[in-house]
Amino acid sequence: MKHKKKNISLADVAKLANVSITTASRVLSDADYPVAARTREKVQGAAEKLNYVTSGIGRALATQSTRTIGVILSDISEPFFAEIMRGAEEVSQKSGFVITLLSHARDIDRELQYFRFLRGFKPDGIIVGSCSSNRQHMQRLFNEITQLSDMGIPTLCLQRHLLPIHMVRVDSVELSQIIAEYLIKLGHREIAFITGEPKWLPTEDRLIGYETTLKSNGIAVDPRLIVCGNWSAYDSYDAVKKLINSRVRFSAVLASNDMMAIGALKALLEAGLRVPDDVSLAGISNIPNTEFCHPSITTVSIPMRRLGGAAVERIIGLIKSDAEPSDIILPCELIIRQSTGPYKKWHR
Fold this sequence. Notes:
Layout (H helix, E strand, L loop, with lengths): L9 H8 L3 H8 L8 H13 L6 H8 L4 E6 L5 H16 L3 E6 L4 H14 L3 E4 L6 H16 L4 E3 L8 E4 L2 H14 L5 E5 L5 H16 L9 E3 L4 H13 L6 E4 L2 H13 L9 E6 L12 E4 L2 H17 L6 E3 L3 E3 L13
Parallel strand pairs: 1-2, 1-3, 3-4, 4-5, 5-11, 6-7, 6-8, 8-9, 9-10
Antiparallel strand pairs: 10-12
Helix pairs in contact: 1-2, 1-3, 2-3, 5-12, 6-7, 8-9, 10-11
């Protein structure tokens, strides 16, 4: 019969280092308290020899901080959010924080459950990836965020949010405006648009940017040219195939994100259409995949890693001192590649 090994305690470390438990605690918790370098070395050496691991629960009780940041994203499989998390983790690690990552797959009920879970878990701050436009859900979420705020836990969003919370983001309306304006300058007027999943603010914002840019250039919005790709390469592929078969004329396709642009590219090429000779194609985000497509895809670059890092820096600042809701908007950049070219009349 195996006997359970004795848990090494702080007292064991203190005894081996020949210091008080208080001194050992100050060293191992990185407390802001002066400890002689020789004493610090003895405590750290004893902890390493005994394989002692600081109790997260004990530290949290002593410091009233878990040193964790809760992050709630809509889909962690998306390269866009993967790049954001790389930036977030780089900053969090340097700052001594650990990220607890949750993904709700754009299920608003699950998003609410995760907020409630984190309220019980008590992280030091929460970062949320996007915002639904469902008003009833927003009211329930407002109640959760209010309770978190009352507990001293700040919440920040990586995109425009309907609630009065902190934001670090890019302007989703401007993203589609930049790329639509570029396509129009190339001579395109019949521009198909692939939207993201309905009832989410980024979807609505990018559609607004597309429509306002067309209208400001004297181009009527044709609802037949607006199709839904649900932020997915697969759904975008199906939507563009249907668009091609509908015989509606278009000389360019603008996708609300790069994954949908990749799906659209496959559909166009399979239909025997040349990109950009027959149809120009553009996306939004500048995920790494787009540079290696053939042809490489024109896009608007979102500084994803910088966005993740800036969000963590901001939430850590809010943990240390409360502030009124702020809206930090990072710049984006047009990246011109092989998939776009001047308008050429297309006969089918």
